[in-house]
UniProtKB/TrEMBL annotation:
Residues 21-330 form the Enoyl reductase (ER) domain. It comes from Streptomyces sp. 900105755. CDD domains: PGDH (cd05288). Keywords: Oxidoreductase. This is NADP-dependent oxidoreductase. Pfam families: ADH_N_2, ADH_zinc_N. InterPro entries: ADH-like_C, ADH_N_2, ER, GroES-like_sf, MDR_fam, NAD(P)-bd_dom_sf.
C-alpha cells in the first residue's frame, strides 16, 4: 500500500473556463483511521459538471485550499469499525483524493451484479444513470412511441437517456452534441436516429432539420440557445425536462435564452427541473430496470476512462471541453 496520500485542492476561483492552474495536488502521510472509521483506497473517481459550479464562490461550493469532494469508489484497506471489513468495496462522496477516512454512515456498500463492472456504479447505474432514468420516467413520463430530443446527448446523462429511451419504447430519438465523431457514435451505437453538431449553425435550424415533425419530450442538459430551440420544436402537451445548464457554467454572464413564452401556453407545454439528490429512493428501481439489460447485452454503458489519479484535473477539464463520450471516469493507475 502507498505510504502517502494525494488530495486535490482548488487554489483560486476561475473567471470563465478553469485551467490546471486553479488546482494543486497536495501530498501528505497516509491518514490513520480513528476509532469507528475506516481507511479507503480509492479505485475510481467521477468528475462532473456540478464541480464547475462548486468552483465558484457559491453556498456549498468548494473551499479554497481544502480537499475537494466528489463521487468515488474504493476498497477498505484498514478498519477500526466492525461495520466496514477490510477488502469491502464502497461508494462515497469524498473523492478527488487517493485515500479517504470514512465512517460507515458516509459510505454505501455496493451490490455486485455478475458481468457488470464497478465503473457502472459511477455511470449508468450511478447518479448519472439515475438522472437520465428520473428525467424520462418521473419528470417527462415518457410514453411508448413519443419522440425525444436530448441536448448534450454524447455525455453521461445524454447517452444513458438515449439508451433508456430506446428500452422504454421511445419513437424518434434526436440528439445534439459537439463533434461529428460523437454524433456518429450516438447513431451507430446508442440508438439515436439523428444527431446534429450544435457548432454548425443556429440550434433552431439544426433541430428543425433533424426533427421536422417536432418532438414530444425534450431532455435539456445544456440550456442557452438549445433550450430556446427545444421550446420551438415541442408539440402540443410537450414536456421539457431541465436537467442542467452546462452552456452557462463557464459563461455566467451569457444572456438567458429567448423564446416565445406564448408557446408554453398555446402548446400546453410543461417545463420541470429536478435534482437527482431528491430521487435517491429510486436507486433500487434503476438496478431492477437496467441490470438485467446490462447482463443480457441489450444495454451498454458509454464510458471514457482516464488512467491515473494524477490526471483527474485533466479529465475534469476535458469533460468541460466535450472530450468525453459517455460518462467520464478516472481509474487509479497500477
Ligand atoms: N439535475 C441533476 O440532478 C443533474 C445530475 C447530473 C448531471 N446534471 C447535468 O446534466 C448535464 C450533463 O451532465 P453529465 O454528467 O452527463 O456531463 P457530460 O454530458 O458527460 O459532460 C458534459 C458535456 O457537456 C457538453 N458541453 C460542454 N460545454 C457545452 C456548451 N457550452 N454547450 C453545449 N454543450 C456543452 C460537452 O459535450 P459536447 O461535445 O456535446 O459539447 C461535454 O461532454 C450537465 O448540465 C449537468 O450539470 C444534472
Amino acid at each position: 500500500m502507498d505510504q502517502t496520500a494525494l488530495t486535490v485542492h482548488q487554489t483560486a476561483r476561475p473567471l470563465g473556463f478553469p485551467t490546471a492552474g486553479h488546482f494543486a495536488f497536495v501530498e501528505a502521510p497516509l491518514p490513520e483511521p480513528a476509532a469507528g472509521c475506516a481507511l479507503v483506497e480509492n479505485l475510481y473517481w467521477s468528475v462532473d459538471p456540478y464541480h464547475r459550479e462548486m468552483m465558484d464562490d457559491v453556498p456549498g461550493g468548494f473551499a479554497l485550499g481544502a480537499p475537494l469532494e466528489g463521487r468515488a469508489i474504493g476498497r477498505v484497506v484498514a478498519s477500526r469499525t466492525p461495520r466496514l471489513a477490510e477488502g469491502e468495496i464502497v461508494f462515497h462522496r469524498r473523492g478527488w483524493r487517493t485515500h479517504a477516512v470514512v465512517t460507515p454512515e458516509e459510505v454505501r456498500l455496493l451490490p455486485r451484479f455478475d458481468g457488470v463492472p464497478l465503473t457502472a456504479f459511477l455511470g449508468i447505474l450511478g447518479g448519472t444513470g439515475l438522472t437520465a432514468y428520473v428525467a424520462l420516467t418521473r419528470i417527462a413520463r415518457l410514453a411508448a412511441g413519443e419522440d425525444l430530443f436530448v441536448s448534450a446527448a454524447g455525455g453521461g446523462v445524454g447517452t444513458a437517456a438515449g439508451r433508456f429511451a430506446r428500452l422504454l419504447g421511445a419513437g424518434r430519438l434526436v440528439g445534439s452534441t459537439g463533434s461529428a465523431a460523437k454524433a456518429g457514435h450516438l447513431v451507430r451505437e446508442v440508438g439515436y436516429d439523428a444527431v446534429f453538431d450544435y457548432h454548425e449553425g443556429p440550434a433552431a435550424e439544426l433541430l428543425r432539420d433533424a426533427a421536422p415533425g417536432g418532438v414530444d419530450v425534450f431532455v435539456d442538459n445544456v440550456g442557452g440557445p438549445q433550450l430556446a430551440a427545444g421550446v420551438g420544436a415541442l408539440r402540443e402537451f410537450g414536456r421539457i425536462v431541465r436537467v442542467g445548464t452546462i452552456s452557462q457554467y463557464n459563461h455566467p454572464d451569457a444572456p438567458p435564452p429567448r423564446f416565445d413564452h406564448a408557446d408554453i401556453v398555446e402548446k400546453s407545454i410543461r417545463m420541470e427541473g429536478f435534482l437527482v439528490s431528491n430521487y435517491r429512493d429510486l436507486q433500487e428501481e434503476l438496478y431492477d430496470f437496467a441490470v438485467p439489460h446490462l447482463q443480457s447485452g441489450r444495454l451498454a454503458s458509454d464510458e471514457t476512462v482516464v488512467d491515473g489519479f494524477e490526471h483527474i484535473v485533466d479529465a475534469f477539464l476535458d469533460m468541460l471541453s466535450g472530450r468525453n463520450t459517455g460518462k467520464i471516469i478516472v481509474r487509479r493507475g497500477s
